[in-house]
């Protein structure tokens, strides 16, 4: 009797978690979850990138057969293309100025929005608004504001006594600053929100301890706030650098790379070569160079981040 | 882990190698797929045919419909199917479509640089054999433009429209200032003096003597008309110096709107002239159609002033001896299914019948004939503000093509426009600017 009971009460044979078939089945389930996204990535991102890299060694105008030309595109780029040097320098100028200004302003704004001031929710929304607004609409208004003869900005400058205010987007000296201004103004909302989230993760006790030790607000910023948000700073820095390097839509809408080639950035030069001059091979070569630059900058950043980030 | 890495690397390597293998053979092979020629043959008028035609602004333009209806009435077995593309990106879209071997039978292009890209990429057919076999074909009716638009001695298009660039002036502003009207054969200095005399007002009441539209042609057209300048030949660029000097002088002195402001506010010559903000503009003869339309408006935008035209001034004082302007070409698609009927369509719209429809709206057809010229002279009777004798500026033996078709023409033209904006905004001196123009344009022309 007891043996029969014993057999009846024997638990069901459990699957052995370390057996090969079990692992494989679990793996298959996992892969099937990521398959749709992976397929999309493969077809729409990975394959075009590989095609682009291969095309950079070829010459193609999108109709005649693709011709393999080896390193000719790269040789031309570094020896004969004056626009390449100019656009690279413009991109560096644009990045080196936009990134720090956006970073610092968005951090300061986030600190401000973190304080308990009346109506800060409304202010946060107002500051975030430019980021979501249409670039085309904002660019049109910005250009109207900075119109050299009829715009309000120059009217104000003339009223306060500056006889010859800058011609903004109509001058090779001031066109890039005008675009930088637009980029900064449009972007700080987003990065302010990112920093706000980070700031709200700073433990309040640290500030109290600092206050007790007699630190004023500046000292508190440099010794408590800044070190605590370094991971976010690196994230913001990386996002900013990548996005400014890729930037082209702002130049396209406002100045079309002009006047002269003052606002022609590398991404604009790529667009021009591909879709205006029908030189897809050369445009691919340019984008490979852009890719390499961005990868190098990002790798440097990762290295630096390891050394300077402190995690709580 | 190792296995996954190997798979990833293998995948990338295979794709990359596959791409390279798919490229053409080693060394330089003939890159242009020479477009095939259209052979003459008779058309079967009993055969049901659908012709695919690409156009821009088809829904906004009455004359296309009138012409197409006329063609379909003449050949009832043919149905014309129009594919309309957005006007702003029309040329890029059509080129992309044809890259995908789209079976468009008839392709209209906005201008010659766009057509030159199609020819280079083999998307349109050569028409010479057909023209030779056709007894009704008269190349002389096209003011030398058929020859001027040939590439490598082959004809790829027929001029559907042509334009002559003229000075359009507002007679009322001149009358009020007590200044005599501009006339043919002025020098640039005389033109500048005249413009200065009719400049008046400040701020919102400002009336400019001259309005320079932001296109680079608004400076080089004067030199182009007397063949001192060829945009695709940088050795002729020094001829532009006096013209840039006058244009920059006019804007510095407030006689013309400065380039930066015009660009920033997207000022357009049509609006400026219509609202009497400028006494004179330099623009193509399509403005005639604009002005005729504006006279018939019923809103407050209706024009109430008499206007006139005269030939472009230049530093030689040359009068109305040559015309200069763009050509709107129409070509036969290389992958269409009905090339013979496509040619019949092209013949119709570019021939006498199509020309009369165009002329009736004030647009200058590529085809010239006494009937067409009469229509233009007739406008003075039906339109109060239109001047008499318009045909004088259309019936010229030589039409200089604004932008000749050469390889890399589009890229060169873009490089030219870039440096033009630098000169006109005063960011660079005129001499330095012209040197930059030469080097930048030559760089593009030299690309293999």
UniProtKB/TrEMBL annotation, chain A:
Cellular component GO terms, alphabetically?
A: plasma membrane
* Keyword Cell cycle applies: no
Record flagged with keyword Membrane = yes
Q: Where is the ABC transmembrane type-1 domain?
A: 88-301
Ranges annotated as biased composition (Basic residues) = 11-20
Membrane-related topology note: Multi-pass membrane protein
UniProt KW keywords: Cell membrane, Membrane, Transmembrane, Transmembrane helix, Transport
Entry-linked InterPro entries? ABC_transporter_permease (IPR051393), MetI-like (IPR000515), MetI-like_sf (IPR035906)
Family matches, as Pfam families: BPD_transp_1
UniProt xrefs under SUPFAM superfamilies: MetI-like (SSF161098)
What biological processes does GO assign it? transmembrane transport
Mind telling me which CDD domains this protein's record contains?
TM_PBP2
Q: Where is this region: Disordered?
A: 1-20
Query: Which residue ranges run through the membrane?
Result: 28-55, 92-113, 125-145, 174-199, 220-242, 280-302
Broad class of where this protein is predominantly found? membrane
Subcellular location as annotated: Cell membrane
Q: Can you tell me which family this protein belongs to?
A: Belongs to the binding-protein-dependent transport system permease family.
PANTHER family associated with the record: ABC TRANSPORTER PERMEASE PROTEIN, INNER MEMBRANE ABC TRANSPORTER PERMEASE PROTEIN YCJO
* Record's protein name: Carbohydrate ABC transporter membrane protein 1 (CUT1 family)
Q: Which organism is it from?
A: Cuneatibacter caecimuris
The beginning of the lineage is: Bacteria, Bacillati, Bacillota, Clostridia, Lachnospirales
Automatic annotation (TrEMBL), chain B:
PROSITE patterns registered for this protein in UniProt: PROKAR_LIPOPROTEIN
Q: GO terms for CC?
A: cell envelope
Q: Does the keyword Transmembrane apply?
A: no
Signal sequence coordinates = 1-21
Q: Which PANTHER family match?
A: ARABINOSE-BINDING PROTEIN-RELATED, SN-GLYCEROL-3-PHOSPHATE-BINDING PERIPLASMIC PROTEIN UGPB
Which family does the UniProt entry place this protein in? Belongs to the bacterial solute-binding protein 1 family.
Tell me the protein's name. Answer: Multiple sugar transport system substrate-binding protein
User: From what organism does this protein derive?
Assistant: Cuneatibacter caecimuris
């Amino acid at each position: 009797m007891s043996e029969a009971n014993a057999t009846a009460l024997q638990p069901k044979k459990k699957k052995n978690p370390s057996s090969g078939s079990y692992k494989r089945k679990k793996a298959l389930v996992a892969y099937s979850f990521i398959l749709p996204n992976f397929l999309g990535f493969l077809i729409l991102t990975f394959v075009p990138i590989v095609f682009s890299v291969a095309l950079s060694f070829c010459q193609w105008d999108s109709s005649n057969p693709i011709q393999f030309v080896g390193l000719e595109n790269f040789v031309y780029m570094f020896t004969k293309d004056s626009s390449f040097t100019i656009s690279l320098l413009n991109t560096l100028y644009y990045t080196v100025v936009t990134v720090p200004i956006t970073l610092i302003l968005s951090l300061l704004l986030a600190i401000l929005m973190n304080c308990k001031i009346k109506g800060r929710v409304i202010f946060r929304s107002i500051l975030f608004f430019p980021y979501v607004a249409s670039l085309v609409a904002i660019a049109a208004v910005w250009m109207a504001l900075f119109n050299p003869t009829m715009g309000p900005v120059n009217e104000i400058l003339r009223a306060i006594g500056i006889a010859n205010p800058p011609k903004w987007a109509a001058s090779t000296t001031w066109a890039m600053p005008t675009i930088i201004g637009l980029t900064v103004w449009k972007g700080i909302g987003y990065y302010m929100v990112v920093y706000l989230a980070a700031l709200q993760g700073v433990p309040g006790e640290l500030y109290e301890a600092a206050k007790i030790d007699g630190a004023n607000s500046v000292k508190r910023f440099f010794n408590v706030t800044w070190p605590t948000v370094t991971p976010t700073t690196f994230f913001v820095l990386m996002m900013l650098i990548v996005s400014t390097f890729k930037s082209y839509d702002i130049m396209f809408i406002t100045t079309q790379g002009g006047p002269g080639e003052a606002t022609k950035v590398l991404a604009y030069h790529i667009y021009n070569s591909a879709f205006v001059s029908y030189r897809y091979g050369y445009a691919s070569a340019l984008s490979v160079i852009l890719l390499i630059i961005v990868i190098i900058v990002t790798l440097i950043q990762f290295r630096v981040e390891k050394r300077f980030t402190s995690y709580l | 882990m190792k296995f996954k890495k190997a798979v990833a690397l293998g995948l990338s390597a295979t794709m990359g190698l596959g791409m390279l293998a798919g490229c053409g053979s080693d060394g330089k092979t003939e890159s242009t797929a020479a477009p095939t020629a259209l052979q003459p043959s008779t058309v079967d008028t009993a055969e049901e045919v659908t012709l695919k035609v690409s156009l821009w602004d088809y829904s906004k333009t009455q004359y296309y419909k009138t012409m197409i209806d006329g063609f379909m009435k003449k050949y009832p077995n043919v149905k014309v199917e129009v594919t309309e593309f957005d006007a702003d990106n029309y040329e890029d879209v059509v080129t992309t479509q044809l890259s995908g071997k789209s079976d468009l039978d008839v392709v209209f292009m906005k201008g010659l640089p766009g057509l030159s890209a199609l020819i280079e990429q083999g998307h349109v057919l050569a028409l010479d054999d057909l023209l030779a076999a056709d007894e009704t074909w008269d190349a002389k009716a096209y003011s030398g433009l058929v020859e001027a638009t040939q590439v490598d001695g082959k004809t790829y298009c027929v001029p559907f429209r042509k334009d002559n660039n003229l000075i359009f002036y507002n007679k009322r502003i001149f009358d009020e200032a007590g200044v005599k009207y501009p006339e043919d054969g002025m020098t640039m200095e005389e033109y500048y003096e005249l413009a200065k005399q009719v400049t008046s007002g400040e701020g919102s009441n400002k009336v400019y003597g001259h309005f320079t539209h932001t296109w680079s042609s608004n400076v080089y057209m004067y030199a182009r008309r007397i063949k001192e300048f060829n945009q695709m030949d940088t050795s002729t660029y020094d001829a532009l110096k006096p013209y840039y000097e006058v244009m920059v002088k006019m804007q510095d002195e407030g006689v013309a709107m400065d380039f930066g402001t015009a660009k920033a506010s997207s000022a357009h010559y049509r609006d400026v002239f219509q609202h009497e903000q400028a006494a004179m503009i330099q623009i193509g003869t399509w403005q005639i159609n604009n002005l005729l339309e504006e006279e018939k408006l019923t809103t407050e935008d209706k024009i109430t002033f008499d206007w006139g035209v005269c030939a472009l001034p230049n530093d030689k004082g040359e009068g109305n001896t040559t015309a200069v302007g763009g050509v709107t070409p129409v070509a036969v698609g290389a992958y269409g299914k009905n090339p013979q009927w496509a040619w019949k369509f092209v013949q119709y719209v570019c021939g006498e019948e199509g020309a009369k429809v165009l002329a009736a709206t004030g647009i200058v057809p590529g085809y010239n004939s006494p009937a067409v010229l009469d229509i233009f002279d007739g406008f003075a009777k039906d339109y109060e503000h239109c001047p008499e004798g318009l045909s004088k500026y259309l019936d010229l033996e030589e039409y200089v093509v604004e932008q000749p078709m050469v390889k890399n023409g589009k890229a060169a033209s873009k490089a030219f426009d870039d440096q033009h904006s630098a000169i006109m905004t005063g960011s660079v001196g005129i001499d330095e600017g012209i040197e930059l123009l030469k080097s930048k344009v030559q760089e593009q022309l030299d690309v293999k």
